[in-house]
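ok here's the first one, seq then struct tokens
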Amino acid sequence: MSITLIAVRNPKWLTVKNFKYDANGNIEKDESGNDIVETLLDESGNPVKIIECECQWSHLGDSSQEWLSFAATPSDKSAHGKALYDDLIAGKHGTIADES
């Protein structure tokens, strides 16, 4: 099946965060009882970032379909996801907003 992007809007950088787990696989808590969340780092120690956006895709309908949240990453396993990431980086869908 061929998957084609119909439209994309609201691209925004997002830093990937994960829960911190203890040796038993339980989410660690801080002294107030809140879950501890850490920024995911790459091999060089830099924060991992993705591009969050809203998309409409050909395999889900036409331009009247609902907008769906999509996380574009450079390591996407699907061709359409990787192509979208590359196009967003190249500025083909406008400016990528900073993380708020």
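and now the second one, same deal
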Amino acid sequence: MPYHNRYKGDSLPSIEVFHMDASEFIGAALDADGNRKDDDTWMAEAVWDQAEAPEDVAFEAEGLAGWYWWTCVPGCLPDSSAFGPFVGPNAALNNAREEDS
């Protein structure tokens, strides 16, 4: 996962830019039998904020797939919620810079 670290003249904190595909959201939301998983990860919450039933999960997961960023020091847990999805890593990084300004 790519990290952007602060450089001279940039006030942006260390962030992690990462990609999440639909299958990762589905895996967070549903168990092996296709039932709702009792999972409190941000990925599962993002899916269940939109999906009303397990049949809706794949559709919602497709819409959540993409690039995200959060403030995070390498090797540590994130310091913020995930922001996204974005169409590419540069779009995520640009958004992080906009949020910082």
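notes on #2: Residues 1-19+67-101 form one domain. Residues 25 and 43 are 6 Å apart (CA to CA).
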